[in-house]
Amino acid sequence: MANALYDKGREAFATGGINWTGDTIRAVLVDTGAYTVNLATHQFLSDIAAGARIATSAALGSKTATAGVCDAADVTHPAVSGASVEAVVLIKDTGSAATSPLIAYIDTATGLPVSPNGGDINIVWDNGANKIFKL
Predict the structure, then answer these.
(1) How many other β-carbons are positioned within 10 Å of the β-carbon of residue 50?
(2) CA-closest candidate to residue 39, choices 83, 74, 90
(3) What is the band of 1 on the pLDDT scale with cuts at 50, 70, 90?
(4) Mean pLDDT for all residues in the chain
(5) What is the per-residue DSSP string for the chain?
(6) Closest by alpha carbon to 48, among 108, 85, 97?
(7) CA–CA dist 131, 72 (Å, integer)
(8) pLDDT reported for residue 34
(9) Which residues are registered as beta bridge partners of 101?
């Protein structure tokens, strides 16, 4: 599958439910062996089984949104262990998996898949025209 936005996440941007620069956005490392993405119907972090969520980042920093192009500083997940990681899912963190909207599904990127070995996993966002994603 190619990188894409979740339909409900796109809807939340359109209706003001997600503010890229103002909300707490996190990157979740996901084992796709335990999660099958459904961009049309999956809405909240709780749609991804806890066992498929290998690690969650600190809040993304230095977020920008220019001409619908969303970007942020690269992020490090420290001391990651567990199952293999084949995707990164961006979420708006509300403090509860049941209400934290899914934003983007990224499975095509340099370094994916990765097998955690207890070390840090760095996510280096694309510096091309569309950065992390374009609305």
Answers:
(1) 9
(2) 90
(3) confident
(4) 97
(5) ---EE-HHHHHHHHTTS--TTTS-EEEEEE-TTS----TTT--BGGGS-GGGEEEEPPPP-S-EEETTEEE---EEE-S--SS-B-EEEEEE--S-TTT-BEEEEE--STT-SB---SS-EEE----STTSSEE-
(6) 97
(7) 8
(8) 98
(9) 44
